[in-house]
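Agenda item 2: S-adenosylmethionine complex prediction
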Amino acid sequence: MNYRHAYHAGNFADVHKHMFLVALIRYLQRKPTPLVCLDSHAGRGIYDLSTREAQSTLEFRQGVGKICHAEQREHPWLRDYHQLLQDWRKSTGLVEGYPGSPAWVAQLLRTQDRQILLEKHPEEAEALRQWARHHAQCALHQRDGYEGIYGLIPPREKRGIVLVDPPYESEEDEFSKLIPALARWVRRWPEGVYMLWLPIKEQQQLERIVRFLRQEQWPERIDKVLLAECSVHATDNALALNGSALLLINPPWTFAEEAAVAQQELWSLLSPAGMGRHAVRWIDLQERKRR
Ligand SMILES: C[S@@+](CC[C@H](N)C(=O)[O-])C[C@H]1O[C@@H](n2cnc3c(N)ncnc32)[C@H](O)[C@@H]1O
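Presented output:
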């Protein structure tokens, strides 16, 4: 467990993930009924981009930096992301700060909503605990996210999102835990909305994950999942993070159409020279059985 998100906070993958997370919560909040947001790999909650860690990689310049310096942000998802970031920086006084997923979600919670955070690393969990002390609607569990989520679903609200954002330190190892865990959760709570972040290094690797997904036992009603890919470099180098992908199970009605338009603008800001690619597509999970 050497991974520290402080080196990567605010990079292009964070922007992609957090813009989608905000949009997803906004969609689900169109109904007044309570909502719960579960985060299996929560990180430390907030990040300071002036620290040695962030400054040693400067990854945030290619992510949130590009969004903040853009002359225009047209799509409502991008405008919302940017406005929330500005509001958060102003209200916390962290002008060089960047919110982690718990802080993005906390900004959006209504009085009837709550957030449950899981983080295994002792130091990250301690930092998160300090942050959560000031956020009454957030509960924290210092434990393994894969085991922890299973015990927390279905939540009493019956409506909610599970964000799954592992570090992928050893990819094969992570996928071997992650995909069976996701399938178990979906069998236990098929109505939940799940958003899983995936790294894109080589394009074939993403296709391999799709094959792994098809091998799992999914409930009949989960026949398709949505995959949103945003690559900012050619996807041909197994050693570099070239793109960010989000796999969504049970996204809200019409989310896919809007995601394609929002992601296109995001990609054009993150990759002004046109490197990489972007796509939003449905994956048929039951394809193997239908053949
Ligand atoms: C990519 S970071 C999370 C970033 C965060 N979701 C965000 O968007 O701000 C992954 C986190 O997972 C934690 N972690 C690693 N293995 C874990 C496990 N088995 N269960 C829970 N957390 C774990 C790491 O310590 C790290 O803080």
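Discussion summary: The chain has a mean pLDDT of 96.
Owner for follow-up: CH.
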